[in-house]
């Protein structure tokens, strides 16, 4: 438990204790603990290969840990029978790295995949309607629902993947490097969309990223993976109190300074917009 969790009296949709993941002799996580707070966007960072994706896969039951426990909405994910997990699986949505859309299905059909899986009784006309609604919710035009992934830009594919992740009205959203491969404007727009959806839908978000701009712009707290452990969890100012060299180098390096400057410029621009709105 992090020091700040002692002062947090809300709920924790994800509770991880003593989690060890290993492939043969290669240990990725060594007895890690992590709690995700309801309503937060938790950024998960760490060098390449520190096990961010493996951690996410363990939480959603795609990776069987060597030991430890993972509870999602109070349901034990590790020890449970597959049937027992179904009740929580429809409470989360996942945007995998690269979108992971089915290339032979249209965007709308992709969004319908989880709907058909969990609600096979839904009529086709209703499935179409929900798929169109989810597509538009992510900022895509309604016509995008009838397009194939190969007809979409990288940014549109991410939004389509997000629409599918939101298909079941999840409470918990997993995003694995959602802004990777997007240009800075596309990435900033996606960040804004993530924040807006989190606030309006009351989501809790587990967000793996290498993108410092994303961390500074939208994450409430950040968890740092290094040395097979979670070496810190907190707001960026809290993490900066740590003297761990990776944290210092990451959050005090030139790229972090550029991210802070960019966030501040964005905030100033928003303030000016509000000002000119009031004057108009
Ligand atoms: N199925 C697997 N079999 C063997 N090793 C694996 C498997 N999946 C992941 N690994 C190893 O586990 C380690 C952590 O992988 P993971 O993909 O979680 O890293 P990551 O922190 O997400 O990296 P990146 O930032 O580069 O995406 C890596 O060394 C990877 O090679």
UniProtKB/TrEMBL annotation:
CDD domains (UniProt xref): ABC_Org_Solvent_Resistant
Per its record, what are the GO molecular function terms? ATP binding; ATP hydrolysis activity
Q: Where is the composition biased (Basic and acidic residues)?
A: 262-280
Extract the SUPFAM superfamilies matched here.
P-loop containing nucleoside triphosphate hydrolases (SSF52540)
Q: Which Gene3D superfamilies match?
A: P-loop containing nucleotide triphosphate hydrolases
Where does the record place the ABC transporter domain? 14-252
- List the SMART domains: AAA
Task: From the UniProt entry, list the residue stretches annotated as the region Disordered.
Answer: 261-280
Q: Which InterPro entries match?
A: AAA+_ATPase, ABC_transporter-like_ATP-bd, ABC_transporter-like_CS, P-loop_NTPase
Please report a single Pfam family linked to this protein. ABC_tran
Q: Which UniProt keywords apply?
A: ATP-binding, Nucleotide-binding, Transport
Q: Does the keyword Methyltransferase apply?
A: no
Could you tell me which PANTHER family the record lists for this protein?
PROTEIN TRIGALACTOSYLDIACYLGLYCEROL 3, CHLOROPLASTIC
Q: What is this protein called?
A: ATP-binding cassette domain-containing protein
């Amino acid at each position: 438990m992090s020091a700040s969790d002692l002062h947090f009296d809300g709920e924790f949709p994800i509770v991880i204790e003593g989690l060890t993941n290993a492939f043969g002799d290669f240990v990725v996580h060594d007895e890690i603990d992590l709690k995700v707070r309801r309503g937060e966007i938790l950024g998960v960072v760490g060098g390449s290969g520190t096990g961010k994706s493996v951690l996410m896969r363990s939480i959603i039951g795609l990776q069987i840990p060597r030991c430890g426990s993972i509870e999602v909405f109070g349901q034990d994910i590790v020890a449970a029978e597959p049937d027992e997990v179904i009740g929580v699986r429809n409470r989360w949505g996942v945007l995998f790295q690269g979108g992971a859309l089915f290339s032979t299905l249209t965007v709308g059909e992709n969004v319908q995949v989880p709907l058909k899986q969990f609600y096979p009784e839904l009529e086709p006309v209703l499935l179409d309607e929900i798929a169109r609604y989810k597509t538009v919710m992510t900022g895509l035009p309604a016509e995008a629902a009838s397009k194939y992934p190969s007809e979409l830009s990288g940014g549109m594919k991410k939004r389509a993947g997000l629409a599918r992740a939101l298909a079941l009205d999840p409470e918990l959203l997993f995003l694995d490097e959602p802004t990777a491969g997007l240009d800075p404007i596309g990435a900033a727009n996606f960040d804004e969309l993530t924040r807006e959806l989190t606030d309006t839908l009351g989501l809790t978000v587990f967000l793996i990223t290498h993108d410092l701009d994303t961390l500074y712009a939208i994450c409430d707290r950040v968890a740092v993976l290094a040395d097979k452990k979670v070496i810190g969890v907190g707001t960026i100012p809290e993490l900066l109190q740590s003297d761990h060299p990776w944290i210092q180098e990451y959050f005090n390096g030139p790229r972090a300074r550029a991210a802070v400057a960019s966030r501040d410029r964005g905030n100033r621009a928003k303030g000016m917009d509000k000002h000119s709105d009031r004057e108009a």
